[in-house]
Amino acid sequence: MIKRSFLFVVQGEGRGHMTQAMALYDLLTGQGHEVVCVAVGSTNLCEVPEFFRKKFDCPVVALPSPRFSKDQAGKAIRLGRTVWHTMKSLPNYLHGVKVLHRLVNYHSPDVILNFYDPLVGIYAMTTRSHPRIVSIAHQYVYLHPEFRFPDGRDMERRMIRNYTALTAAGSTLRLAISLYDMPEIEEPRLKVIPPILRNEALHHPVHEGDHLLVYVVNPGYVQDILDWHEKFPDVKVHAFTDASYVREQHGGRWEVDDTLTIHSLNGPLFLKHLSSCKALACTAGFETVAEAMYMGKPVLMVPIEGHFEQYCNSRDAQRAGAGIHSDEFSLTKLLNYQPFHRDGDASYKAWVDSGNARILGALNALFPGDHSGGAPDVEKILKEAV
Predict the structure, then answer these.
(1) CB proximity list for 291: less than 8 A, separation 6 or greater
(2) Rounded to whole angstroms, how far apart are CA atoms 164 and 139?
(3) Nearest to residue 235, comparing CAs of 278, 298, 199?
């Protein structure tokens, strides 16, 4: 395939889309392609984590983009407040679309790779001519007719499907990331692919240590951990959070006592503790659960209140064998479940390990007129890769 240039647009809410972008950056540049710019949907560049900005050998630009509004405790999503804030900030978001238009004109990428940011959908609908757009996220499984939504909550189901379709408006291809393979459908623009995990996670040595691991981006959940720890002080716990006071007051490492340590977000350190923990408790973000499954770690998934995506993720991941879901951060439930957890068979790892070949095959097929002779034989690539 001819070497191509890519412009990434990454939705900055949470860390999963950023992790996927980092992994795809390694994959594409490893194949000789170029990533010319990374735009992050965020309030300002200061909110883009340092580890993410340092990953890319190209400009990293922040774009004003919609995000969830939380309650005062920093735990629950408030849908009404989110809609109100989005409408109030609409001029800023439209400015973000204009900035994206300028970035595309300046860098002239062959492909815009969109990690679920709605600005790309708006850009595509308001631009007469634009490069090929590939939208990639777990949420695109919601557009697959075989995806099983939880029963009830029909209004939220329609809303998330409509929002997901908006993010992918004008896309040549939608890559739906799933914990398991799904049947091919007649819609050629929707392809199901495995989780995109960091190389560090794929190749990290794994063993079972003596601690539980907790991952909560929202700072409001830290108090739940502290409350539980008071009742069970003998259980060793390492927790990771995005709480600013852990960074600013404790230098990124708060040793509450001999058995509880709370860390600021740190990718390599988190992987070290994930690979050696007895079990993981986390909000139901897709990427963290996928990494834990690859390492064979049982997971307690607690969806953020009001976050319908995480509500769906937790039910879907439990069916896939990741662990159990719960409405509260009770590590007792995780301890009670851990002895009965059955690690998945080799099929999940094989599914994940086939990901790079599937992604490259899908991207190559965007350019059937390459000098390479057309779209590649994906099955042949997979046999060579696995």
Answers:
(1) 195, 197, 198, 201, 271, 274
(2) 7
(3) 278
Measured CA to CA, the distance from residue 240 to residue 267 in angstroms comes to 10
Residue 177's φ and ψ, nearest 5 degrees, are -85, 130
Give the Å distances, CA to CA, from 359 to 21, 326, 364, 369. 13, 33, 8, 18
Q: Which residue has the tokens 């607690």?
A: 302
Strand order in the sheet with 5-11: 60-63, 34-41, 5-11, 111-115, 132-137, 173-177, 190-193
Burial class, 272, CB count within 10 angstroms (exposed 0-12 / middle 13-18 / buried 19+): middle
Give the span between the Cα atoms of 213 and 278, in whole angstroms: 8
Helix ranges restricted to H, 251-377: 267-276, 286-294, 308-319, 331-337, 346-353, 355-364
Per-residue pLDDT of 282-327, as tens digits, reads: 999 899 999 999 999 999 999 988 888 999 999 999 999 999 999 8
Looking at residue 214, the DSSP 8-state letter turns out to be: E
Would the pTM count as exceeding 0.90?
A: no
